[in-house]
Amino acid sequence: MTPTLAELGEEELLKRLARFAPPGQLDDDTACLGSDARPLLVNTDVLVDGIHFSDTTTAAVDVGWRAVAANLSDLAASGAVSIDGITVALVAPGTTPWSWVEGVYDGINAALEKHGGTLLGGDCSSGSSRLLSVTALGRLGPLRLLRNAAQPGDVLISSGPHGLSRLGLALLQKEPLVQTNSLSAELQDQAISQHQRPRPRLDALNGLLACKPAELSWRAGGTDSSDGLLAAVQGLCSSSGTGAQLDRSHLPRPQEWPHGDLWDRWCLAGGEDFELVFSIPPAWADALETTLAGCRRFGQITDKTGSIVWSDDKKPVLDGGFDHFASS
Amino acid sequence: MTPTLAELGEEELLKRLARFAPPGQLDDDTACLGSDARPLLVNTDVLVDGIHFSDTTTAAVDVGWRAVAANLSDLAASGAVSIDGITVALVAPGTTPWSWVEGVYDGINAALEKHGGTLLGGDCSSGSSRLLSVTALGRLGPLRLLRNAAQPGDVLISSGPHGLSRLGLALLQKEPLVQTNSLSAELQDQAISQHQRPRPRLDALNGLLACKPAELSWRAGGTDSSDGLLAAVQGLCSSSGTGAQLDRSHLPRPQEWPHGDLWDRWCLAGGEDFELVFSIPPAWADALETTLAGCRRFGQITDKTGSIVWSDDKKPVLDGGFDHFASS
Predict the structure, then answer these.
(1) B223/A28 CB distance under 8 A
(2) How far is CA B197 from CA B42, B247, B290, in A?
(3) Fold of B147-310
(4) pLDDT tens by residue, B133-184
(5) How close does chain B come to A185, measured CA to CA in Å?
(6) What is the pTM of this model?
(7) A120 to chain B: nearest residue by CA?
(8) Class (C level, CATH) for A11-28+35-140
(9) Given CB 3.0 to 4.6 Å as the disulfide criterion, which of A4, A72, A303, B136 pairs with A152?
(10) Closest to B157 measured CA to CA, from B100, B211, B102
(11) Which residue in chain B is spatially nearest to A322 when comparing CA positions?
């Protein structure tokens, strides 16, 4: 039997957690990062049981993986070319089995091993429900990607398809809306994997950096699509004071994606695909399309502040956002 | 009437929170810190409603202040001479009134204005109970204070008295143990203030750095006493493989502190005084006593691994630690 956190006690819990970090790393409350010439990027994300994950859809190891992936995705969307590491605040009731915590930290380390960085430190406490608050630190490369740096005439281009994570969730929750017999086994596997093990697209950022035409300056709008593709476009437009036209026939739908409103809604607003969405000059977009396999051009930035419309009929693309507070 | 978080919605909440940070600071998910030659220190602390604070003893503004103070205290105890800033993850039920959140961030900014640093970023989510997870970033000075750097022969010296925060809590909770009529109004005020508005002792670190005798190297053991004075000594001893002798007659009791077992226990294990505890060579301790008003020499480090005893009768000093998980 795995012990509960109350049975372990705080001292033993901290000892066990220290095994997930480099030797001696968690001996002190504070982690030390060697300095270098490059500016530091910092990001904090919180994952709460029942909101961002649940036992029915997310194994402990996937909770840890997703917590890291969500944070590194934000760093990639800001221009981080290397990851220093993360701190983790873990809150859980005393009745939580140790095996769950161990699974979470196994997932954290698996994601860090894959994408770089180490567990730098953290804190833990009991509390009424389980949650993780992760702060990630990385180093900026030559381009600071900003939400407010989109300009009219830019191409909107995403690092990959959207909607898979939402489909994966639907499959895991056995939502009756989804006729699984019409979906290939490959698409289903891909969707579940995208939901449980999203990849932060540090590779896509590197592709963008590698292919910038020499005549262009280091200016690009960018964000990740953790809240959905449309929310990413809205974020770029509202921060930059621009509008956008989306190309209905070139939405970044996954391969073999069914036709229909539900499926387009999931592509636009399903969320949690953790792709990058760039706003870049057409020449840079051309170069990116030849550099980054799977990237998808789906619209352009306009000077019509706050107006996000379809390019064919100029009708508004509706908001499909998700509000973390409204339902609680 | 102040709106609840559910009434505000996430977008409006984020807008309101952005007013607590420098203009534009929270526009992107990731904060950027300019780089300089000095290594970076990182610390994460989590504060949970019902465990680290409660409405009956801690106003919202004090919750915010304490969250910052606890983090900066850890940075000071590691050798940070300047503070870059903090990220804040806020979790609260949708029924939480906005005025509480506003109070917390007012307290956060009051502490940052006093001690340095800005609100760099963060995240928020609904959740079943209120909590704050704060990550603080600061720059290391010439001395990296470590728990494992204590050496036999070192003097144990604290930056100030211990027990006030615990007395403050007792007064706020009207615990029957405390005979308030025997305590001066000044001591009571000081205790409540220490509980609600603890100061991170960055000044004490600066005092330590300023007075190092030239013939000594930059080597000192150090930690803060957030978990209590005895826990700080235990942390130094277990990380350094040493023991300690404490001088019963020179415990760092507050002025006008009553005599008795309860009061000595609060001095040793009351916790949350957020003073610094140093393990330094005697010549450095002599210099510190003339530099830092209120610092208190209370024992020495020995080579008897794990043995923490009174210097007069060599009897063990009992553990009065507090386990965050055991009671939940």
Answers:
(1) yes
(2) 22, 29, 27
(3) Phosphoribosyl-aminoimidazole Synthetase; Chain A, domain 2 (3.90.650)
(4) 999 999 999 999 999 999 999 999 999 999 999 999 999 989 887 777 789 9
(5) 34
(6) 0.88
(7) B42
(8) alpha beta
(9) A303
(10) B211
(11) B10
